Amino acid sequence: AHRIMCIVYLIAFLFSLTSEQCSSKLMEDSSQSFMERMHTGKTSFIYFGNHVNPTIKLFMEQLEMSADALQDYGISVVKVNCSKDAIANYCTGEKLMTKAYLFRGSEVLRSFDIDTVFDVNAIVSHVLFSVLFNEVRYVHTPAELLRVESAAKQNSDIVVGHIPVLGLPEHRALMEAAFVYGTKYQFVQTSGTLVLKHMGVVDLSSSQARLWFLHCKGVSRRSDPCPSTPMRKPLNTINIHTFLQLMEAPLTESVLDPSEVDVVHLHLGVPVLYLFSQPQTQHLDRATAQTLGLQLRGEVGLVLIHRDSPNVKTSLKYNAAYRLPQEDVKYFTLNSAEGVVKLFKEELLQEQKLENEEEDEEHWSDLDILDDEVSESVYRDRDLMLDLESVIELTSDTFQITVTQDDITVVLFYFKWDAVCMAFIQSYIEVADALEGMNGVKLAAVNCGEWTDICSDQNVTSFPTVLIYRPMAAAQLYRGMLGTKSLHRFILLSLGSSPYILSSSAEVMSFMEGDLYSKHMYLTPVRVLGLFSSTHDMGVTSFEEAARLLRGESILGLFAHKEMIHVWTSEVEGLSVNLPALLVSRGPGVPYEVYSLPSSSPTDLVSLIKQVELDRFPELTVENLPWYLELGKPLLLLFIGKEDSTESTKALAEIKQPLSSGQLDSFLPCWIHLGRTPVGRSILEKYLGFVPPLPVLVMSQLKTGEEVFLFPPERPLMAKNILQWIHDVENGQEQPAGLIPDGKWGPPVPFFDFLAIMDQEAPTYAVQRAPKMKTGGREDHRENKHVTPNQKQTPHPSSNPQAPRQHSEL
């Protein structure tokens, strides 16, 4: 269900696209502000550089991201431009540009090579580990861990994390958990195999990060070992939080029926076991429940229900029940404690694990290309050698010569260690193979990890980036999808002129629906013609610049001759044009569309041209959806299963009737083919709560609210019925069949609000963690960041410094 929700939100919430800009929290200090910072006593992570070496750019991007994350912990991230402010001891010497420093006040807690703090996870994990150096114990041997256990017995429980490689996301997750739960538990970190063997790990060659909870607080005898519970899920922030929540509540008691009991385990997605207690055997039942709670700890929540309450109405023939995540309560008769453990360990938990694995597989197959999937696929194919024979690999010596030789040179800028780049390279090679032998076209690539000077000179800041070079012209950025088909189409369209300069009525007809049209008909059926009185019109220059910007995306023509235009338009039945104008052709036999062409800038013309190119009755896809949503019209959306079925063909034709007469101009009539766009089924189910027989017509995105209206399935899907239904909806005579979910995302439950948890668990935590002589950083941070569970979270930082802010990891 969660997977489907994510996919539905990905597409459905594009219907209310918004753009919120996150302001950077990275500060820049001058000499004066640096000295003032040294006297505040607060913690700061500072990088000193002169901002001239392009190899540092990637580190600066990660540094900026870490500023947002470390702000949650009262730690400022600062850069100092040594070319402007030469600060003694830090802006000189060979260590400049290669070191970053962690200060508390004027005291340097630690310095880091930037190779160590290579990305945001490494920065956050190393900085927090340094700040928590006295609280998080680092052990190398089992003997050192046993000494920590001995000191913790009867005092506190221990959280042990094995982090094979420091600076990775697992290390960051452990440090963030230590910051939040550090006053409740003793945190221990290790990276050696000796401790792994001591904890019972058999495969010591595994590089997997691990976590254990040592129950030392309840151990009274020094000679007794601390029982341990391993965390069996991947080590990340949410899983650690869930695991620690389970450790705190192994047994809950209630006086309600299982279906009425609300426990933390249900919110955490953990199975729950319910045991019924009789008044006469209450002591024995509680002991049994406690035993089972310890055996199933970390995997199953346990609730003891007292039957002496009148609220418990479960039949006496059952003495136990269980509830799996997202399922109803199931009752059974408990014969022995061993039987319950076997039921969960060998059957229910294994089934749930298999279901989760299958769901993960479906998740990857349904989603479009995302970072995690790309990383996984690149890792899976890491041994496959890429054939780069059809792609020229450029260097500093060959770049300028190569990009000026041919009519078109396409250049891919990439990093070998970036998963998205490596996944796209395969598509890029396929395009190069398809175009091999074509005159005037050459595909090349630049490895920005080796040739940083080229990428810097070309102002390439994101990867992968594709630029198209032509002699004596500025480079053009490819803005399409990172796939073989899209890039191949773009390059082929780029081979033609933009715009085509037409000088006669015959050339216009050839461009609109003749030989010139047929040349690129398989790429796009739409042609846009700019009509002007003469080449000296003020709008011609803007149109030519807009055509240049749209080269590879659209096919545009320019006809600037007033007398010829009047002669030609008089020969076309029903065509009347007031110059300047845009004329749109959607293919032979389709009436031309005429749009007035106001005087505007090239960028405004680009938007206008992209808008007039849109189909009046489009098939919605993931690729074209944003363009149609920009129209801001309510959607009249037809879902069909098979385009060639009689019902689907008839439904499409019935909607086209009122569309052609202008009766649907206030709507955006469109359709989704569930075979080509499978996620449409999930959207339809989310809209209505079920999937009715197809085809089905719905209306959504009304200005009056978030209602979704369903065309009555008992009425024939005919033009007159559709118009009557629309009239009834607008007059409030139809009841909505569903609601579009609220697009604002927040934490699923308040338990994931780590900053609120920190204050709830220990209100003076921030003060406790800082030494008395170095207070200030966390106190100020906590006052501004306190969030109660009832406060509404916002997904982006607020402009108000006092507003609550969501944790960046979540």
UniProtKB/TrEMBL annotation:
<dbReference type="InterPro" id="IPR057639">
    <property type="entry name" value="TXNDC16_N"/>
</dbReference>
<feature type="domain" description="TXNDC16 third thioredoxin-like">
    <location>
        <begin position="252"/>
        <end position="338"/>
    </location>
</feature>
<dbReference type="InterPro" id="IPR057642">
    <property type="entry name" value="TXNDC16_2nd"/>
</dbReference>
<feature type="domain" description="TXNDC16 second thioredoxin-like">
    <location>
        <begin position="129"/>
        <end position="250"/>
    </location>
</feature>
<feature type="signal peptide">
    <location>
        <begin position="1"/>
        <end position="20"/>
    </location>
</feature>
<protein>
    <submittedName>
        <fullName>Thioredoxin domain containing 16</fullName>
    </submittedName>
</protein>
<feature type="region of interest" description="Disordered">
    <location>
        <begin position="770"/>
        <end position="810"/>
    </location>
</feature>
<dbReference type="Pfam" id="PF24510">
    <property type="entry name" value="TXNDC16_3rd"/>
</dbReference>
<dbReference type="Pfam" id="PF13848">
    <property type="entry name" value="Thioredoxin_6"/>
</dbReference>
<feature type="domain" description="Thioredoxin">
    <location>
        <begin position="391"/>
        <end position="491"/>
    </location>
</feature>
<feature type="compositionally biased region" description="Polar residues">
    <location>
        <begin position="787"/>
        <end position="810"/>
    </location>
</feature>
<dbReference type="InterPro" id="IPR013766">
    <property type="entry name" value="Thioredoxin_domain"/>
</dbReference>
<dbReference type="InterPro" id="IPR036249">
    <property type="entry name" value="Thioredoxin-like_sf"/>
</dbReference>
<keyword id="KW-0732">Signal</keyword>
<dbReference type="InterPro" id="IPR057645">
    <property type="entry name" value="TXNDC16_3rd"/>
</dbReference>
<dbReference type="Pfam" id="PF00085">
    <property type="entry name" value="Thioredoxin"/>
</dbReference>
<feature type="domain" description="TXNDC16 N-terminal">
    <location>
        <begin position="25"/>
        <end position="128"/>
    </location>
</feature>
<dbReference type="Pfam" id="PF24509">
    <property type="entry name" value="TXNDC16_2nd"/>
</dbReference>
<feature type="compositionally biased region" description="Basic and acidic residues">
    <location>
        <begin position="776"/>
        <end position="786"/>
    </location>
</feature>
<dbReference type="Pfam" id="PF24508">
    <property type="entry name" value="TXNDC16_N"/>
</dbReference>
<dbReference type="InterPro" id="IPR040090">
    <property type="entry name" value="TXNDC16"/>
</dbReference>
